[in-house]
Amino acid sequence: MSVMMKDRWTEDDVCGLPSGEHDYFDRKRGAILANPDLETKLAKALSALANSGGGHLILGVKDDGTFDGVDLLHKGRTSTRDWLEQIIPNLLDFPLDAFRVHEVERAANSSIPSQQVVIAIDVPDSERAPHQSQVD
To answer: Is residue 53 within 8 Å of residue 23, measured between CB atoms?
Structure first.
């Protein structure tokens, strides 16, 4: 199954994802950004998606689907979204040819914690597979 990359993600899109684990998307708690093994965990998730038809990695959502969010800014003045766009190409052998990092658009009555954002990363099916973590 090849997954389509989106032009935008909304809070309703994220809420509409099925519960449980699936091959085409993965949820990660917001605390992942504070994990010392962040790059390793991201590389493994991204390579798994790229090697198996593509998918979506959602950051700032617990396994039960509730939002805990990630900080809007990462290490200073860089937005978390921009920072992820900068590091993702260097996480995998072979680098991903294409991916999109989205800041999820809030609903009118948002459940995303204030001062936090949810990030969606679209990973297409890769013709350069197999990818593997460059980090470990």
So the answer is: yes
Name the phi and psi angles at 95, rounded to 5.
Answer: -60, 150
Beta bridge partners of residue 70, listed in sequence order:
117
The predicted-structure confidence for 27-72, as pLDDT tens digits, reads as follows 999 999 999 999 999 999 998 888 888 899 999 999 889 999 999 9
For 97, the token pair is 């040819």
| pTM for this predicted structure | 0.92
CB 63 within 8 A of CB 28: no
Integer CA distances (angstroms), 61 to 30, 64, 70, 113, 121, in order: 7, 8, 9, 11, 13
For 9, 32, 94, the CA distances from 12, given in Å and listed in that order, are 8, 22, 33
